Amino acid sequence: MQAFDFTVTYEEGADDLMDVFIENPGLYSRTVSCHATAETMWRVDEVTGPPEALAAYDRRLEQLPRCSNLRGMGGCELDWEHEVLAERRTSRLIYSKQSEGKGCRSIPYLVTRRLGDGALCRAQQYGNAYEWSVLVDDDSALSPVYEELEANLRPGLELTFERVDGSPDWTADRPDADDLPPEQRDALRAAIERGYYDTPRRMSLQEVAEAEGIPVSTLQYRVSRAEAWLAKNYLGGRTDIATDPAEVEESAT
Fold first, then answer.
1. Strand, coil or helix: what is 135?
2. Is there a cis peptide before residue 215, judged by omega within 30 degrees of 0?
3. Is the pTM higher than 0.90?
4. How open is the CA angle 143-147-148, to the nearest 5 degrees?
5. Which residues does residue 180 pair with via DSSP β-bridges, in sequence order?
6. DSSP code of 198?
7. Residues 6 or more apart from 46 whose CB is under 8 A from it?
8. Is 239 helix (H, G, I), strand (E, B) or coil?
9. How does DSSP classify residue 194?
């Protein structure tokens, strides 16, 4: 099997929903499940980010017509509907169904047309980028997909296409707080519960440390290590960094 990436970049103003990602760099969406036929695509996406970014996403999502004249990547009209399956402070789980009309359709439809039902696709959105990854055993079918979409891409969008070197990495691992050393996990939880990450911030790290009865330098170290681990694992895959509790605590002291 071989993985290929299609990346569509958007100019600001080219797409109402992508504008929210452009305006809120902390906003991120990934596909949890996606199934496309020649007529319809069903998908579930998890959208994460700061509360204010998610609030902007919610407002924009509600402003999009349920049965709309939104233009797909290739300029065709589409009918679209959605439902919020789960809503949390820093995440949303969104179900959507869309059917694209006449004209050049978007990546999952074109892939399905070339490879048949059951093509494996996943997507992620952040900043001005909308990335589709496709897992196939016949790479010859994907070049025509790229050529057709590039020839019909609507204004304000730009397309790149590349083969992923090495073995496909389609792991669905997410950062798991249980993988953190207990001291880092407790420090992060204390910072969250006492409002260090709230906007506006309710307590400083020094105030959190005083409330927890530990030196501020120790708390700062543990929180920084936990933040670095979460950031690297969330956006860069499972990146192994030193997280042995004994090693971490020895370094901190």
1. strand
2. no
3. no
4. 120
5. none
6. S
7. 29, 30, 32, 91, 92, 93, 94
8. coil
9. T
Whether residue 168 has a cis bond before it, omega within 30° of 0: no
Burial class of 175 by CB neighbour count within 10 A (0 to 12, 13 to 18, 19+): middle
The H or E element spanning position 238 is: none
Q: Tens digit of pLDDT for each residue in 183-206?
A: 888 898 899 889 998 878 899 999
Paired with 35 in beta bridges are: 42
Unique residue bearing structure tokens 């073995």: 167
Q: Do the beta carbons of residue 162 and residue 4 sit within 8 Å? A: yes
Q: Where are the alpha helices (DSSP H) in the chain?
A: 16-23, 51-63, 107-115, 142-152, 182-193, 205-212, 216-236, 245-252
Measure the CA–CA gap between 37 and 237, rounded to whole angstroms: 29
* 166 and 40 Cβ atoms separated by less than 8 Å: no
Radius of gyration of the chain from its Cα atoms, rounded to whole angstroms: 21
Q: Which residue do the tokens 């071989």 mark?
A: 2
Helix (H, G, I), strand (E, B) or coil at 42: strand
Q: CA-to-CA distance for 223 and 191, rounded, in angstroms?
A: 8
Min mean pLDDT across 97-106, 206-215, 223-232 is at: 223-232
- Say how far apart CA 131 and CA 125 lie, in whole Å: 6
SS3 for 6?
strand
- Cα separation, 150 vs 107, in Å, equals 11
What is the distance in angstroms between the CA of the first residue and the CA of the last residue of the chain? Answer: 48
Lookup: tokens for 204? 């400083």
For the stretch 11-62, pLDDT in tens is 999 999 999 999 988 888 999 889 888 889 999 999 988 888 999 999 999 9
Q: Name the phi and psi angles at 239, rounded to 5.
A: -95, 120
Q: How many residues does the structure list for the chain?
A: 253
